[in-house]
Design goal:
248 residues; Rossmann fold; OB fold (Dihydrolipoamide Acetyltransferase, E2P); five-stranded parallel β-sheet; five-stranded antiparallel β-sheet; 8 helices
């Protein structure tokens, strides 16, 4: 028997992406789509799906309001670009939590968990531990930059170093720079600490983009980046023995 599936997202491209990934899963039958919370509630009541891929952030009625309005809810997989909703998703007994941007491999893992759940597998606490574990180790692979009235993504993998300037952050990508609104403190939480390090109050550098370290005064260092820029590594941010390990 096929798994009746409803797709709910206010962005049509997002629904098209899920449809495309579901093409390789013949045991899933897409019985409908909805573009907002009100449509979702009506469609769930009318179509009685087995599982709903439910966007969290939608105009007027969000995904959590939809889930709360259901008397006999189907299995729910929340889909969102923000990991801050993970615990709330667990509180409403979500089956899974799909964090945007996701790829087909991650999507197929969700489908397999749905299959296992329908076979009576995956206890609730195990799901919570897995969901939180994935979120804690996941970092975004791009940031959105607005420049000259246009918006575009800059890949995190392309960043060499980041420079804080009051309420803005300057992204250095090779010979190019991009400015985005925000603070260095906020952006630092989205960067993998195994790849980036805070070297002073206003700069974060990618370790792989460092050309050399030059000892400076009072236990500080001058960092020479591969693009030729120099950045100071203040004593406050130097971890004992860490610079020597990089030079090796």
């Amino acid at each position: 028997m096929s798994i009746r599936t409803l797709l709910v997202d206010d962005e049509r491209p997002a629904r098209r992406k899920m449809l495309r990934f579901l093409e390789s899963a013949p045991d899933f039958e897409v019985v409908g789509e909805a573009g907002d919370g009100s449509e979702a509630i009506e469609a769930i009541d009318r179509l009685r799906p087995d599982v709903v891929f439910l966007d969290v952030q939608m105009p007027k009625t969000d995904g959590f309001a939809v889930a709360s309005a259901l008397k006999d809810p189907p299995e729910i997989v929340f889909v969102t670009a923000h990991d801050k909703f993970a615990l709330k998703a667990f509180e409403v007994h979500a089956l899974d939590y799909l964090l945007k941007p996701y790829d087909e491999e991650r999507f197929q893992k969700v489908l397999e968990r749905i299959r296992k759940r329908r076979r009576g597998e995956h206890p609730m606490m195990e799901r919570l531990q897995r969901m939180l574990g994935e979120i804690q180790t996941r970092y975004p692979d791009r940031v959105l930059v607005t420049e000259n009235e246009r918006s575009f993504f800059v890949a995190i993998a392309d960043l060499d170093w980041l420079e804080g300037a009051r309420n803005y952050v300057v992204l250095h990508v090779g010979a190019k720079t991009y400015t985005m609104r925000g603070t260095l403190d906020a952006l630092s939480k989205k960067l993998d600490p195994s790849a980036f390090v805070r070297v002073n109050r206003s700069a974060i550098v990618r370790l792989d983009s460092i050309r050399e370290l030059q000892p400076w005064f009072h236990g500080e260092y001058k960092i020479v980046m591969k693009d030729g820029a120099t950045v100071s590594w203040s004593r406050r941010y130097v971890t004992a023995g860490f610079p020597k390990r990089i030079l090796k």
